[in-house]
């Protein structure tokens, strides 16, 4: 089996796990994992009230693999308080171009649809958590 096929299988499994980790039903559901963002749903998702953290990534990116479990942990830690999303830059060129993503991972922080902060490159969890707390309004 090729590396590319293995990566596709991993992606399908990740999508399935993410779907299973949504607690509740309907519009009031609280996600404990990042939502998969696309060119089609990006604006709708970041425009929601509150803070949304978006991880711009690609499957071939080593530093993205370092950041991914951190984003997963933060999504669980802040479930119901902060929304998290992951956007594969290879599969979603429109949004990637719109925000001029040139290096990944890039993590952007949106409040009510407006970008309020950016982190380029892999950083440890406390660094991202500090940025979340800076923009989180209760």
CATH class: Alpha Beta
Count of folded domains? 1
Instruction: Estimate percent helicity.
Output: 40-55%
Q: Please work out how many helical segments DSSP would assign.
A: 5
Question: Would you tell me the structural class of the helices and strands?
Answer: alpha/beta
The percentage of residues in β strands lies in: 15-25%
SSE succession: HEEEHEHEHEEH
Rg result? 14 Å
Distance between the termini: 49 Å
Mean model confidence by pLDDT: 86
Please list the strands of the largest sheet in the order they lie side by side. Answer: 3-5-4-6-7
CATH homology group? Glutaredoxin
Write a concise keyword list for the protein shown above.
alpha/beta; Glutaredoxin; two-stranded antiparallel sheet; 5 helices; 41% helix
Structure description:
- The model is unreliable at 17-28 (pLDDT under 50).
- The protein is globular.
- The chain is built from 5 helices and 7 strands, in the order H-E-E-E-H-E-H-E-H-E-E-H.
- The longest helix has 18 residues, at 3-20.
- The chain has a single domain, classed as Glutaredoxin (3-Layer(aba) Sandwich).
- The protein is of the alpha/beta class and 138 residues long.
- The strands form 2 sheets. It has a 5-stranded mixed beta sheet with strand order 3-5-4-6-7.
- Strand 1 and strand 2 (30-31) form a beta hairpin.
């Amino acid at each position: 089996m090729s590396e590319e096929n293995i990566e596709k299988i991993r992606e399908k499994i990740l999508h399935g796990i993410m779907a299973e980790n949504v607690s509740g039903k309907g519009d009031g559901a609280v996600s404990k994992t990042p939502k998969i963002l696309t060119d089609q749903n990006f604006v709708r998702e970041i425009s929601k009230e509150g803070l949304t953290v978006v991880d711009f990534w690609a499957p071939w990116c080593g530093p993205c693999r370092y950041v991914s479990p951190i984003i997963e942990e933060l999504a669980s830690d802040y479930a119901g308080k902060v929304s998290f999303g992951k956007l594969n830059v290879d599969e979603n060129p429109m949004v990637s171009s719109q925000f001029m993503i040139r290096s990944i991972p890039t993590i952007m922080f949106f409040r009510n649809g407006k970008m309020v902060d950016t982190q380029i490159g892999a950083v440890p969890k406390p660094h991202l958590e500090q940025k979340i707390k800076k923009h989180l309004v209760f």
